[in-house]
């Protein structure tokens, strides 16, 4: 396989990332905020992995449409959509936190100093990106999510009519996922990698400072680290998730993207690292880059890059 260093990454500064670093004084506030938010990730991933959908109830309601079967189907999808709403809101909260996280990471203005002095913040970014990739991978394996949403949106107005006027009125007041929210959620979950889509769109909107040098340096350091260190399985997954996320972010904000020959990211070496060390996560990492990047299909993208995605 060879190492990343022997493959052409020879001028990356000798900085070792420590995603488990304790926050320094400047990082404590953002670290505390992110740690509290990130503490909910395990439970959300578990609930998504257990998501079974409402196919049986929907099929019964469509094949034998009676008030009883339609009520059963509605109750089932209403419960499922309430869970999906929690996922959606959590993604929006991650999205809101990303700007502060990146500002803290890049505020020193000098990439090497920023990376050395913001190790705990980098650890938070790694955790955010690892969750995004885990969530999106599971979501792609759950076609029932879109099926449930389709039925929910169709049934929403009809169920209000089926119930008597007083209960329908109460239902509208109590319903968290009204038609407007359901439409937004439907577009969100229709995207192949919805969490990374939200995060990368947020990065595109950030204009306060130049994030490209620091994010590029982190991606390159991740590549060197995963090639040259004997990482635990968990740490390797976090480092590769961090690298993939930084590649996507740079592709959204760098002129011409990240896949061209002038890129500040050693993209061939990074993709090789995913290929060789991604293990069971290799496909999901490549899928994140495939679906969340902007410039992968540009004419300027070299053939050796596109071959990774064939």
Task: Describe this entry's structure for a reader.
This protein has 310 residues and is mostly helical. The protein has one domain (5-309). The chain has 15 helices and no strands. The protein has helices spanning 28-38, 41-49, 55-63, 67-106, 111-117, 119-140, 144-162, 165-174, 179-190, 194-205, 212-228, 233-253, 267-277, 282-292, 303-306. Helix 3 (55-63) packs antiparallel against helix 4, helix 10 crosses helix 12 (233-253) and helix 11 (212-228) crosses helix 13. The longest helix is centred in the first third of the chain and has 40 residues, at 67-106. It is elongated, with a radius of gyration of 22 Å. The two termini are 20 Å apart. Residues 1-7 and 164-173 have low confidence and may be disordered.
Give the helices and strands, then pairings.
Blueprint: H1 28-38, H2 41-49, H3 55-63, H4 67-106, H5 111-117, H6 119-140, H7 144-162, H8 165-174, H9 179-190, H10 194-205, H11 212-228, H12 233-253, H13 267-277, H14 282-292, H15 303-306
């Amino acid at each position: 396989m060879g190492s990343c260093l022997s493959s052409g990454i020879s001028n990356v500064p000798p900085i070792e990332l420590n995603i488990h670093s304790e926050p320094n004084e400047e990082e404590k506030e953002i670290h505390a905020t992110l740690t509290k938010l990130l503490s909910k990730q395990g439970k959300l991933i578990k609930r998504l992995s257990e998501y079974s959908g409402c196919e049986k109830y929907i099929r019964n309601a469509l094949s034998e449409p009676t008030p009883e079967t339609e009520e059963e189907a509605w109750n089932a999808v209403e419960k499922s959509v309430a869970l999906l709403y929690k996922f959606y809101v959590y993604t929006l909260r991650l999205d809101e936190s990303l700007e502060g996280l990146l500002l803290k990471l890049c505020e020193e203005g000098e990439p090497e100093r920023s990376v050395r002095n913001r190790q705990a913040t980098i650890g938070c970014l790694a955790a955010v990106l690892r969750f995004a990739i885990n969530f999106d991978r599971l979501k792609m394996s759950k076609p029932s999510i879109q099926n449930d949403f389709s039925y929910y949106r169709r049934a929403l107005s009809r169920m209000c009519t089926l119930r008597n006027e007083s209960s329908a009125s109460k239902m509208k007041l109590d319903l968290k996922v009204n038609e407007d929210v359901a439409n937004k959620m439907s577009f969100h979950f229709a995207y192949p990698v919805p969490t990374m889509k939200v995060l990368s769109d947020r990065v595109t909107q950030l204009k306060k400072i130049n994030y490209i040098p620091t994010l590029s340096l982190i991606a390159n350091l991740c590549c060197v680290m995963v090639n040259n260190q004997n990482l635990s399985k968990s740490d390797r997954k976090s480092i590769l998730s961090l690298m993939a996320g930084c590649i996507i972010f740079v592709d959204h904000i760098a002129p011409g993207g990240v896949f061209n020959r002038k890129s500040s990211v050693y993209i061939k070496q990074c993709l090789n690292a995913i290929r060789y060390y991604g293990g069971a996560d290799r496909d999901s990492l490549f899928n994140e880059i495939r679906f969340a990047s902007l410039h992968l299909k540009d004419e300027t993208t070299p053939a050796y890059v596109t071959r990774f995605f064939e």
